[in-house]
Amino acid sequence: MSHTGNSGGLPGSQRITDPASGDQLSEPTRAYAELIAGNRRFVGGVPRHPNQDAGHRAAVADGQHPFAVIVGCSDSRLAAEIIFDRGLGDLFVVRTAGHTAGPEVLGSVEYAVTVLGTPLVVVLGHDSCGAVQAARESVATGTAPSGHLGAVVDSVLPSLRRAEAEGVDDINDIVDIHIAHTVETLLGQSPVLADAVAGGRCAVVGVSYRLAAGAVRPVAAAPAGFATVDPSAGSVESAAPATV
Ligand SMILES: [Zn+2]
Question: How far is the CA of 135 from the centre of ligand 1 (A)?
Fold first, then answer.
């Protein structure tokens, strides 16, 4: 077996260029393009299941170089390697109900970005999120949830307050606000991550996943103007900049 082959990092995307300018893309943009390409395969029912064979398993046993961190909701229908059509060593995944970002989540993200050199952090939320709905019900009924579920609800409350202030009532629009809030929490609570973004070593993108369709859509990003290039479509779409 060989240990000199791809042990992670950006698989096969070294020559991805901006379809408009022809310029070489930054590593965070290439990482995002790789994720979107995998999501398109998943949505289209033509997944390749890359990096899931025994040979690759052996090749990455000595070290990991994931090209993206996924801070996702724990929802059982949101398995990162499946919906982005990736395999072993590709994604560093941190999941909590409602993608709430407490100290352990922040530490995990910082580990990936600083120790492993991962160039992209993706906050992955979805429509009909149960954690957001639970928080909403808690506020509506004035009833605090039992046990540690209260910590999840408490972490979603700032997003509910922002939605109310903006007159947003649709649950999936609230989810988008909560995804943007999580992006801002990561950047605001982690100077290490904010420095990596300011230095161009990393980008943070919040995406919303549709359970039925299987597709992701960017809703917030840092740095401002981070262009999310989809090489297969040859198009460039931009997420709203995160407000930090
Ligand atoms: Zn959820």
Answer: 11
